[in-house]
Design a protein that fits this description.
The structure is a single chain. Helices cover 55% and strands 17% of the residues. It is of the alpha+beta class and 132 residues long. It has a 3-stranded antiparallel beta sheet with strand order 1-3-2, covered by helices on one side. Helix 1 crosses helix 2 and helix 3 packs parallel to helix 4. The longest helix is centred in the middle third of the chain and has 27 residues. The radius of gyration is 17 Å and the shape is globular. 3% of the residues are buried.
């Protein structure tokens, strides 16, 4: 049980530091406090470690992608907006679903609008080109 709590805390702190981009002592204390105070949900599912590692790798890989997309949007206007459906991997735990939503929303060109129980994310994205 202690390993599961440690994984939850590491995940929450990782997301906290990605969102705040601040490693000051005060922010670390706040992050640990928030990570400990958030309720812990027990989904009854044991996600594979390889799945967690793959998702966490994607989280860290999305950081340069977010900067690149922001720079691209500054240099070349993105005037077209569209809403697309993106497939969700089957049998995802709520924790992995949250990370999937975080990955999509972290980059400036996309944001998740809605999660459909049938296995789809409704995603708003902007692209280059004229208005739709």
């Amino acid at each position: 049980m202690g390993g599961k709590l440690a994984r939850q805390l590491i995940l929450r702190l990782t997301i906290w530091f990605l969102l705040t981009a601040n490693l000051s002592l005060a922010n670390i204390v706040i992050g640990v406090t928030v990570a400990l105070l958030l309720p812990r949900g027990d989904t009854g599912r044991n996600d594979r470690l390889s799945e967690w590692l793959r998702v966490l790798f994607k989280v860290f890989a999305s950081i340069p992608q977010a900067y690149a997309e922001a720079l691209e949007m500054i240099l070349r206007p993105h005037k077209r907006e569209e809403i697309v459906l993106q497939h969700v991997q089957p049998r995802r735990s709520p924790h992995l679903l949250f990370l999937d939503i975080f990955l999509i929303t972290f980059t400036p060109k996309t944001i998740v609008l809605k999660y459909h129980e049938a296995g789809w994310f409704e995603v708003h994205r902007v692209t280059r080109g004229g208005p739709s």
